[in-house]
Structure formats: C-alpha cells, structure tokens
From TrEMBL:
Recorded family membership: Belongs to the Nudix hydrolase family.
Keywords per UniProt: Hydrolase, Nucleotide-binding
Family matches, as Pfam families: NUDIX (PF00293)
Organism taxonomic ancestry: Eukaryota, Metazoa, Chordata, Craniata, Vertebrata
EC code(s) of this entry: 3.6.1.17
GO biological process per UniProt: AMP biosynthetic process; ATP biosynthetic process
Cofactor: a divalent metal cation
Residue span, Nudix hydrolase domain: 1-141
Protein name, UniProt field: Bis(5'-nucleosyl)-tetraphosphatase [asymmetrical]
Enzyme class: hydrolase
Naturally occurring in which organism (per UniProt): Strigops habroptila
Length: 148
C-alpha cells in the first residue's frame, strides 16, 4: 500500500499596485528539506492513525511552518493528489490550497527544513523541480485566477 501524506499549498497576497491583476501579488510558500537532496516542497507529512487527511494537512503545516489553522483560509474547491515513488515505496500526497490571512505572518521552521521562500509562480515552479509539483502549482494558480 502507498504511504499517504497530506499538506497545504500556502500562498499569500502582497498589496498590489492599483490596476494590477489580482493574481500579480500572489506568492507561494516552499520549504527546503534538511534531508535528502534538500528539495523544496509545500508543508506536508504522513497521516497519523485516527487522523483524517485534512487534519493531517493542518497539523503538518503547523509543525513545519508554524502556521496555525486560525491564521489560514482554506480555499474551497481545490484538492490535488500526487503519486510518486519515495524511498522505494509508492507515495500519495494530497494537497489543499490555503491563503495566509496576514501576509506578514512569521514562518517558523522545524528541524525537518532548513530554509523557506515566498515565491512568485514562475520561481516557485523553478524551485519545485518535480514536474508534477510544477503542474500542481500552475493549476492552483489558474484556479485562483479563475476565481477573481
Ligand atoms: P518527500 O515526499 O518530499 O518527503 O520526498 C521523499 C522523496 O521523494 C525524496 O527523494 C524527494 O526527492 C522525492 N520527491 C518529492 N516530491 C516529489 C515529487 N513531486 N515527484 C517525485 N519525487 C518527489
């Protein structure tokens, strides 16, 4: 059976200039792992026994980025599942999309990550490196564009 993990694609909206497109000020939060190849990823982690997927996504975001559920707005209608091999086993990762209510909220990393970045879509895709993650970020961005 596949290892199951859940997480949140976190974004913030910077104050944009008048007449700028609403999505111009969007930045995505990526964390750089302190393990393995030090890849960049949204906060996510394994589902604990008795937890549902969304609870895991919020708990992992709190543990890995220091963001409480009360500091986030979960965006209705977006959910994405990725499947990839990790350490020789199939892994499924479910992501939701959430906005940080205050764009200046402090990010507090755990020992699992060594750095974080708020990145515009293009840079986020470059950092994310994996094609499925890049496609997920683009899809999330298009979803946000279509809402406004
Ligand atoms: P992670 O799932 O981020 O803890 O990473 C576990 C392993 O899977 C690491 O070797 C990563 O380099 C690899 N990995 C992470 N994300 C992806 C992805 N989206 N597609 C393929 N491999 C990945």
């Amino acid at each position: 059976m596949a290892v199951r993990a859940c997480g949140l694609i976190i974004y913030r909206r910077l104050q944009s200039a008048p007449f700028a497109k609403v999505t111009d000020g969007i930045e995505y939060l990526l964390l750089q792992t302190s393990y393995g190849t030090h890849h960049w990823t949204p906060p996510k982690g394994h589902v604990d026994p008795g937890e549902d997927d969304l609870q895991t996504a919020f708990r992992e975001t709190q543990e890995e980025a220091g963001l409480q559920a009360s500091q986030l707005t979960l965006i209705d209608g977006y959910k994405k599942e990725l499947h990839y091999p990790a350490h020789g086993k199939p892994k499924t990762v479910v992501y939701w999309l959430a906005e940080v209510k205050d764009c200046n909220t402090e990010i507090k990393l755990s020992e699992e990550h060594q750095a974080f970045q708020w990145l515009k879509l293009e840079d986020a895709c470059r950092y994310a490196e994996y094609e499925d993650m890049q496609a997920t970020l683009k899809e999330a961005h298009e979803f946000l564009c279509s809402k406004k």
